[in-house]
Design goal:
The structure holds two protein chains of two kinds. By secondary structure, chain A is α/β, with parallel strands linked by helices. Helices cover about 30% and strands about 25% of the residues of chain A. Chain B contains eleven helices and no strands. The chains are: A alpha/beta, B mainly alpha. Chain A: GO terms for molecular function: ATP binding; ATP hydrolysis activity.
């Protein structure tokens, strides 16, 4: 569960981009975060991931039975950049890094990495340089790398921006699978897509506030 | 002209016949310079990381200071170390003057500014997302640091090659604190200076050829590294 109170953030001495007096989210749904360019969607996602320190207010994640935590929550609440950073190694190597950091045994790591690449449709590219992949494949690799950790929450910053139709469909399928596997997702997106239509909640940053609506069969309530 | 050709021929003969005296000098040079470069690399990496990634008051002054030290003449480093290591100096008790260790200290000091400046520039150009991604995926502080260095590996190798090229070709501090002692602290550059003064051009020329060959190899390697680094950045 996410609890946000009295949150405000801005850059340098500029006035705050927005203020969120209170937000409570169960952290199970698929959320579409909307807002105009410059409204602070990326900033909000980065704050929730703990990549920025808020100017004021608090953010608390309660994940499972653990005590509430301030972000960052490595491996559990993950933020994916609009253009994900891929390490300068092979496709499989990107996943092996994660295995190494979490101390998985070699055989276990090999098995899990191979299964994840297969699941995400990247098995044929396993030994290819990650940075030679197309935009859609890069996003799928970033999602596979995150999925390897079975995160509780994924914060996706415009995951389908500048992708072609087929790549958008592939990425949306993968994100839906992740959600069905029990990962809560907040995604920012300008354009409506198959994925945004499936969202259960709708957060909108406008007039320096966050408006929250729930969807029931496509209708905001 | 004929004399010059004879000298060149003699120099080449010394090289290919593996003249023991010549190769001993080459061995001392490489031993001293490689030790200095590998000793200077870890602290230089840490300082460069600090300058590239941590905002602290006086950072820009520290960067300017490092850039200034890059231009310090080698004889000045030799002079300072000579004063410190001579019997009457504060470190005289260590009895390091005219030893290979003293030469390593001198080359360590000469290598550090070059390493720090080049590593700083390389590490600064590494995408901030690399650190953020690694930390989010559960990498510890040291693992993330190692990842950054690995991502910048071509720049790191280029910095090492450039610094190595500078210190193996320096003569000022080597002659002042090494003393150019035969079989002990005589290096390629100090031997060239000595042999030239004695009128023995063949050995000096042979050693000069080694330095030229080394410069060529280092430049080719640097070119390859720059190319690979560029490919990595643009990918």
């Amino acid at each position: 569960m996410l609890e946000v109170s009295q949150l405000a953030h801005g850059f340098d001495r500029e006035p705050a981009l927005w203020e969120i007096s209170h937000l409570q989210w169960q952290g199970r749904s698929l959320v579409h975060l909307r807002g105009d360019n410059g409204s602070g969607k990326t900033t909000l996602l980065r704050l929730l991931a703990g990549l920025e320190v808020p100017r004021q207010g608090t953010i608390r994640w309660t994940l499972g039975n653990a005590a509430p935590l301030s972000p960052p929550c490595p491996g559990r609440v993950l933020y994916l950049h609009q253009q994900p950073y891929l390490f300068d190694t092979s496709v499989a190597g990107n996943l092996r890094y994660v295995a190494r950091w979490h101390g998985w045994r070699r055989e276990e790591a090999r098995h899990r990495v191979a299964a994840m690449l297969e699941h995400c449709g990247l098995a044929a590219h396993a030994e290819q340089r990650a940075r030679s992949l197309s935009g859609g494949e890069r996003m799928r690799l970033a999602l596979a790398r995150a999925w390897l950790l079975s995160p509780r929450v994924l914060l996706l910053d415009e995951p389908t921006a500048s992708l072609d139709r087929q790549a958008i469909a592939d990425v949306c399928t993968l994100i839906s699978s992740l959600h069905e596997a029990g990962c809560a997702i907040v995604l920012s997106a300008h354009q409506p897509s198959v994925l945004t239509e499936r969202c259960d909640e709708y957060w909108c940053l406008e007039q320096r506030c966050l408006q929250v609506s729930a969807f029931k069969q496509g209708v905001a309530v | 002209m004929r004399e010059l050709m004879n000298t060149v021929g003699e120099a080449l003969y010394l090289l290919v016949s593996f003249d023991p005296a010549l190769w001993e000098i080459i061995g001392v040079s490489f031993r001293v310079s490689l030790t200095a470069i590998f000793a200077a690399l870890p602290p230089s990496l840490l300082i460069a990381l600090l300058l590239a990634r941590v905002a602290f008051p006086g950072r820009w002054f520290a960067i300017s200071l490092v850039n200034t030290f890059m231009a310090v003449p080698t004889v000045v480093v030799g002079l300072v170390l000579f004063m410190l290591l001579s019997r009457s100096g504060p470190l005289g008790e260590w009895q390091l003057l005219f030893t290979q260790r003293a030469m390593i200290m001198g080359q360590f000091l000469l290598a550090m500014p070059v390493l720090i400046a080049m590593l700083h520039s390389t590490l600064q150009s590494i995408d901030q997302r690399a650190w953020e991604t690694a930390r989010q995926l559960g990498a510890g502080w040291w693992s993330s640091l190692w990842l950054l260095i690995r991502e910048a590996r071509f720049g790191v190798i280029a910095a090492v090659l450039a610094a190595f090229g500078r210190i193996i070709a320096e003569v000022g501090s080597a002659v002042m604190i090494g003393g150019n002692i035969e079989h002990f602290t005589r290096t390629i550059t100090t031997a060239i200076a000595l042999e030239t003064l004695k009128g023995k051009f063949a050995q000096g020329l042979a050693l000069g050829l080694v330095l030229l060959l080394l410069a060529l190899v280092l430049n080719v390697l640097l070119g390859v590294m720059r190319g690979r680094g560029h490919q990595t950045v643009s990918a």
